[in-house]
Amino acid sequence: MEKTVTEAINYRRSVRVYKDEAIDSEKVKQCLENAALAPTSSNLQLWEFYHLTDKSILKDIAAACFNQPAAKTAQELVVVVARKDLWKKRAKANINFLNESFNKPNLEDHLVERKKMAIDYYKKLIPTIYFDFLGILGCIKYIAFQVIGLFKPVYRQTRLSDMRIVAHKSAGLAAQNFMISMAAIGYDTCPMEGSDTLRVKRILKLPRGSEINMIIACGIREKNGVYGPRFRVPFKDVYNKI
User: Of 186, 200, 206, 233, which residue is least crowded by CB atoms under 10 Å?
Assistant: First the structure.
């Protein structure tokens, strides 16, 4: 029986050692479909998921992850990739969706206005924020918005580094969707930071503008797969009610 959300969250641990037991790749794919439903900044969905099942590729990626046990014993791997460089393509996809969704005769005035606002958002605001040249325009926009911010609330994250963070935050939300979905069906995962990301990109033949967000080991936990009891700092130390 599939776990509830709370049960899945409590079940999920970073599993470092997996059984030599195959998992259902189709179920993993379904969990990745759940990942693609994660919230994402401006609905740009600046992510890609690489579901690795080929044994030779798994071996190469494990080596790029320093042969840590989670990577070496994983039955499958998922590489979550941030694609900030696809912002134009994804903005265009949103515009096409809006045009199709609102392509109705005698559209009500408030829907006509909503369509115009949304399309202007993707045609004008998104390029203003995302377009850059060698980081120079981003710095100029950053300074300009800081000045505007002296007089009214303004969006301040306009530098190249800021937009990279935005893309990685969205990719991280998708990764969490995936891991909770895996836990819900009794599969285990481990998100790994430790890897030679350049080697990973070369192995997967990823384009230059892509960035590895995380690599997730997948499988079924061995008894010694979880290294210890769960530790969290006291909730009162992180919870602030205002």
Answer: 233
